[in-house]
Amino acid sequence: MAAPMSLVVEFGGGAELLFDGIKKHQVTLPCQPEPWDIRNLLKWIKQNLLKERPELFIQGDTVRPGILVLINDADWELMGELDYKLQNQDNVVFISTLHGG
C-alpha cells in the first residue's frame, strides 16, 4: 500500500483561474493500493482542486494540449508523462501556454 504523499502542485499562465486563482497548493495524497503516478494525480486534482471548466484543463485522462507540465523543473516528457511515479515532496507545475486574444 502506498503511503500518504506530500506534494506541491502549482498552476500558472492562466491555469490558476480554474483553481479559484490559487497558484500554489500544498497537498497530501491519501494512501492507495498502487503507487501514485501523474495519471492518478490528474484524477485527484479534478476531484479535489479543480473548481470550474474542467474541459480547459483535462482532456480524456491527460492534460489538454497547450498545458506544459513540469516535474521538479523538468519537462514531464522526459520523466515518463502519465506513468511517472510520484515521490514525496515532488513539485508538479501546470502552465497554460494558450492565451486568448
What are the SSEs and their pairings?
Elements: E1 5-12, E2 24-29, H1 38-48, E3 58-59, E4 62-63, E5 67-71, E6 74-75, E7 91-96
Parallel strand pairs: 1-7
Antiparallel strand pairs: 1-2, 3-4, 5-6, 5-7
Largest sheet: 5 strands, mixed
Task: Please report the total strand number as a whole number.
Answer: 7
Alpha plus pi helix count? 1
Low-confidence stretches: none
State the domain count.
1
Gross CATH architecture: Roll
Q: What is the CATH topology assignment?
A: Ubiquitin-like (UB roll)
Computed Rg: 13 Å
- Assign the CATH class: Alpha Beta
Query: Which percent range fits the helix content?
Result: 10-25%
Keywords: Cytoplasm, Isopeptide bond, tRNA processing, Ubl conjugation pathway
Main location: cytoplasm
InterPro entries: Beta-grasp_dom_sf, Mopterin_synth/thiamin_S_b, Urm1
Cross-link (Glycyl lysine isopeptide (Gly-Lys) (interchain with K-? in acceptor proteins)): 101
Verbal overview:
The structure is a single chain. This protein is about 10% helix and about 30% strand. It is mainly β and about 100 residues long. It has a single domain (about 5-10, about 20-65, about 80-95), classed as Beta-grasp domain (Ubiquitin-like (UB roll)). Strands 2-1-7-5-6 form a five-stranded mixed beta sheet, with no helix packed on it. The chain has a two-stranded antiparallel ribbon with strand order 3-4. A hairpin with a 2-residue loop joins strand 5 and strand 6 (about 75). The model has no long low-confidence stretch (mean pLDDT about 95). Its main location: cytoplasm. Pathway: tRNA modification; 5-methoxycarbonylmethyl-2-thiouridine-tRNA biosynthesis. GO terms for molecular function: sulfur carrier activity. It comes from Pelodiscus sinensis.
